[in-house]
Design brief:
There is one protein chain. The protein is α+β, with helices and mostly antiparallel strands. Helices cover about 15% and strands about 45% of the residues. The protein has a single domain, classed as Beta Barrel (Lipocalin), CATH 2.40.128.20. The chain has three helices and ten strands. The protein has a ten-stranded antiparallel beta barrel.
């Protein structure tokens, strides 16, 4: 006679065997690498593909700076013609610890950007969608010296996001705004970003 424990194990194994596999991502959503022939041009943002962690500081016009930590993931998308990133604060692990069993705490910041290369004008477009602040912003990006500068389009206040101090395993990111049409710039936010090493 089979024991209750053995029967439970058998039933679990059978259920696992017949359970349908998770469907693959929708076609085109995730790619293994850059599209053939575009490797050089796409390397500007392709160099960030992978998983990262960051320390972030906000600098309000009044009051003390606010600080936080989070995670940032970049991957190839749209058959390798674009790069999508997902930005989250705090990390998923921190949200899981802050919430109850099976109910992680909601992120404070959460959004995604899709970047693609505009070959006709030798520039990049990015659309950023910030879920927690319910915002969508378009940017045009180019390499400027050793930095990557993304300039926001159709916004009331000139805004730019800048990647700098770029190395294989770290970079600095900062957001700046201007109240005088771009003559001077104010630092609003910055992140020190480091590659997550498994």
């Amino acid at each position: 006679m089979i024991s209750t424990a053995a029967l439970a194990t058998l039933l679990f194994a059978t259920a696992a065997a017949v359970r349908p596999a998770a469907p693959p991502p929708p076609w085109g959503l995730i790619a293994r690498g850059p599209a053939p022939g575009l490797e050089g041009k796409l390397a500007l943002f392709g160099q960030f593909v992978g998983d990262w962690e960051f320390d972030v500081v906000w600098y309000p016009e009044e009051g003390d700076p606010r600080r936080g930590t989070g995670e940032w993931s970049f991957h190839w998308a749209l058959d390798g013609t674009a790069i999508q990133d997902v930005w989250r604060m705090p990390t998923r692990a921190a949200s899981a610890s802050a919430g109850g069993p099976g109910r992680p705490a909601a992120p404070v910041g959460f959004g995604t950007g899709i970047k693609y290369y505009d070959a006709a004008h030798d520039r990049w477009w990015m659309t950023w969608t910030g879920l927690t602040r319910q915002q969508a912003i378009e940017f045009i990006g180019r390499q400027v010296g050793s930095e990557i500068v993304l300039e926001a389009q159709r916004v009331p206040t000139p805004t730019r996001w800048i990647y700098s101090e770029i190395s294989r395993d770290s970079f600095r990111w900062r957001a700046e705004s201007s109240s005088d049409g771009g003559k001077t710039w104010r630092l609003d936010q910055e992140m020190r970003v480091r590659r997550r090493l498994e």
